[in-house]
Amino acid sequence: MEIKRDILWRVSLCFVCIVAFSLLILARVFYIQQIQGGYWKDQARQQQQKFIEIDADRGTIYSEDGNMLSTSIPYFDIYIDFGADGLREKNGKRFTENIDSLSLKLASFFGDKGKSEYKKELQRQYAARNRYYLFKKNLTFQQYKVLRNFPLVRQGKNRSGFIAEVRNKRLNPYGLLANRTIGLSREFIDSDGKIKNSNVGLENTYDTVLKGESGKKLVRYIAGGVYVPVEGYVIEPEEGRDIVTTLDVNIQDITENALLRMMEENECTNGTAIVMEVKTGKIKAIANLGRREDGTYWEDLNYAIRASEPGSTFKLASMLALLEDKYATLDNHVDLERGVWHVARRTVYDSERHNKTDVTLKDAFKYSSNVGMAKMVWMNYSRDPVKYINHLKKLRFNVSSGIDLVGETQPIVKSPKSKTWSATSLPWMSFGYEVLVSPLQTLMLYNAVANNGKMMRPYLVNEVSQDGIAMKKFQPEVLEESICSESTLKQLQESLWGVCQEEGGTGYLLFKNSPYTVAGKTGTALVANGKRGYSDHIYQSSFAGYFPAKNPKYSMIVVIKNKPFAKKYYGASVAGPVFKEVSDKLYALMPDNERIPEPLETTPDSSNYSYAGLGIDIKAVLKEIGSVYRDSSGKSEYNVVMAKNGERVVRSRTLENNMPNVKGMGLKDALFILENRNVRVLAKGKGKVVAQSVSEGSPLEKGQVVVVELN
Fold this sequence. Notes:
By secondary structure, the chain is α+β, with helices and mostly antiparallel strands. Helix content is 34%, strand content 26%. The strands form 10 sheets. Strands 2, 3, 4, 5, 10, 21 and 22 form a 7-stranded mixed beta sheet that branches. A 6-stranded antiparallel beta sheet has the order 13-12-11-26-25-24, with helices on both faces. It has a 4-stranded mixed beta sheet with strand order 27-29-30-28, with helices on one face. It starts with a helix and ends with a strand.
């Protein structure tokens, strides 16, 4: 009996527990359904449906001459909903009737599979009722147009189940051309697994303008973690606006190819070349090339806006300070001490050894003497360096250029308050060391000198437009109305002209036979290689200037960093030829009225007359007109007659073996003499020769063009 009671007690207890647990479950079900029902229904809907963003069509970037520099190209991903009502109605009659012809067309057009393979694939997915099957990826618009006309597909999305998802990819039609400046639109996957774009250059600076307004669409969750669009729940995106740049495709192509040729020839590390329109500050071309591990070049960084030690092109700023403060004129003399000068226990060297000592300031600049510039700045500013620094600040070397590009590095101009200021900072700054400025900032100075003292803000975008209508226009902006006085400006222009047009100038040999004149400055700077310092002999070659010198249209700078121990590294031999190739081609592209040869420099004839020619002819003419003269010609074949102390004097004219002096001669005699030296003569005007393009005594090359101007 005791055992029976014990068993009954246990069974009863279990029964009570089961009943209690059942009641608890029923209570919980009631609570969830009646009290929390709305909440859980919302949660279910959120998991099954959600809104996702639709990217807008990105705006196009154009060059000033109307060429596309960066645009969005649509690509199509094709999905198939094998559960579509229209596809499965009447036991899949539509699918069965079209599958053979569709498979044949697909095999013929894409060529990646046979007809039977396509048929098996479609039948397998149809049997599995796959609701969002990825059929083809990255079809071009042309491929998509053809696919839309295939059997079954042409019956529309609801009947065929074919769904096209559009994605845009950024494309630069010109490839490398200005790639870094225009900007790279590179896809990457963020931490949330979403595809995003990383932009630089104009793509980054004007990203908010180009990208437009995103839209939204409602998608529904199906098996396999796939979301399919819900018909009728779409907010269309607003496409981005276009931007029209100041770049010119032809000028950019010329500049980039000239830079690339030199860098490949000399195996340079990196380089940049910028062409600016003098009057406006528009950037017409900006090329940036860096050497990759395989020896090829790519626009990897925007070197044009990265600060570095500029070297001798910075001497123009030092000249401006000296001339503006009236510490010197171009005729002042300075001792170059044969290119070696000791100051504050350090030594300043000129880039090339020479024996020059007493020269004018203009010649010191023309020869690009570090010693000459350092001595002049040291002697006049060592007691008050801030006065010199203030000139650099007025030239805006201490602030960024203001160009509409993200990523410009901060320039550095020291002052006596700087932690790294030392006794040698001032003389070294005078020729472009211990100061960091970008090539673009240096170009702004040279452009200002070309623009009669007016400094312009460099810019890259002319306008923002939509559907061809300008929404916002950008105008040239003046940063400094005048960087210096008129007298200083004229001396700076004369100094830059002398570098390229006067014998002995570091740029003279580059441009001596050009049909136009260039004003500019070479630069050669030794740069450090990290912890190795200057032991690798890495040089930065540069050339900055403007052309045509008498009526400048373009200013330009070329800066190239050479490999260690490069055989060729001077500014005139590395950066200079790039400048010349670009300037030659741009001069040839100018309209005829802008390419008229510039007038040759002439000097007044103080004696009122000076006639030269064959001695026999001169004396015969004087005898015929009964003119009394004093003959001091001796036995010379060619003579010149001129006035001296009120009487006519016939003197001998010695003809150089190189370029002779033909001034005062008639065209017949000048042609005879010059053509016997195997040169081509271009004569302008009538009468006697008053100017010649090649100075007396200069070496002549066979076939060289010599311009003679007659009065």
